[in-house]
Amino acid sequence: MIFSSAGFLAGFLPIVLLGYLLLRWKQCWHASQVWLLLSSFVFYAFSGWNTLPVLLGSIACNFTFGYGLHLRDVGKLPGPAVLSKRVLLGLGIGFNLTLLGFFKYWCFIKGHFTAAACTTGIELPLAISFFTFQQIAWLCDVYNGKVARVKPVNYALFVSFFPQLIAGPIVHYRYVRKQFDRRRTLPKGSLFFLGLVIFSLGMAKKVLLADPLKNMVDAVYIAAADPNYVLQFTDLVVASIGYGLQLYFDFSGYADMAIGLAAIFGIRLPINFRSPYRAASIIDFWRCWHITLSRFLRDYLYIPMGGGFRGKTRRYVNLLITMLLGGLWHGAGWGFVLWGGAHGLLLTVNHLGREYLPYSAPKIFNWVLTFLAVNLLWVLFRADSVEQAFSIYASLLNPAIWVADWSWWKVWLESDWLLNSANLDRVLPAILFFSATIVALQPHSTTRIWSGGTGKPNPWICAFAGGCLFFGIRQLLIVEPATFVYFRF
Length: 489
What we know:
By secondary structure, the chain is mainly α. It has 20 helices and no strands. Helix 3 (52-73) runs parallel beside helix 5 (128-143) and helix 15 (363-382) packs across helix 16. It starts with 5 loop residues before the first helix and ends in an 11-residue tail after the last helix. The longest helix is centred in the middle third of the chain and has 36 residues, at 189-224. The model is unreliable at 415-423 (pLDDT under 50).
């Protein structure tokens, strides 16, 4: 069950929302939290009921470690003195990394030592990367005294809250603690309105842009898997920029829908995207793309390793290690590792350039260079194997590829091109691709609404969001929605 499915929109969401509002109206505060918690477990079970025990076990174990840290902090933890706060934190982080490593990386590691087929006997638990990182951050915050004693229901809801459970944003407990405990009969009207607007915009991104682009991108990568197929110029554009647009609209669409859903229930979640394709440097790109993951890697990996406080050489080594591990977090494959390492190298070059170059190139040049670099590296991220990615890169070096198929452009010159149904399979994808590029380069509407919105109904925003919702639902009635890309991470 995904946010853009008919079952979620017409069944799950209305039932959960009505039950929650009714309990809040009756001032049953604790019951409303339990209702949201059970609903979140049901939502997770629809997508992976056989892995629900993994989520429940992870929540129980992490809460135990966190409670132990709290008791040790106040001097009430019985047991040997060797179980210091540092040891308990290490055990908690070790548990999370072991759980993540077993389900996500065991076969990847074992495959380098044996040719035998590998299986853990159970499918990869949905969202394990997200709820594992979120709980590691919570343990670190408890250790550092940023979080006091937590109620079991509040903690379980913090981890499993269904709008952000599957693919983020990665949230800190201290960010939502007071929101879960807030005793307001009904969610604030302005927040409810903003939630509907943001959810509608996110669904339009997913259904009207990401899903059609997915069909184009998948077709290119399927063709590229055939060793006898010769890639054309348009194939290379779709494989890189096309996938970059698909991933952006898919993932930012999910983030918008998650933020909107949470707001409907009276909970504010952090922004996860801020117009990343308008960035004029790799540094700026990572400040705007998957913001909550970038902050996590900075606060809980880069800075604990020393950050930039132990010399310039150590700074860049730490940066490269952080990006390599960030790439590996996305999936068990060398393509992800190379993708993360390449971004680490680009970040290093970017920092060195800012430090030593006496002048900066024009902003338009920096933007074009950043846009092309980011989208070319998406090939490593999307390709089924490193060999396939390198094959696509090798095609870029073929001079014949750069001679575009001019017959493709003749379609636009023919007087009857729009009426010729035989050409629609080329014309409509081109229009979609061009439109998606323009939209991706615009300021992120969700950020502007979320940070600058007063909650007062704006007729233009209402009309636009209503249109997005209408056409999104209309598309759902025609085509079955695809799962979100980040569901597999």
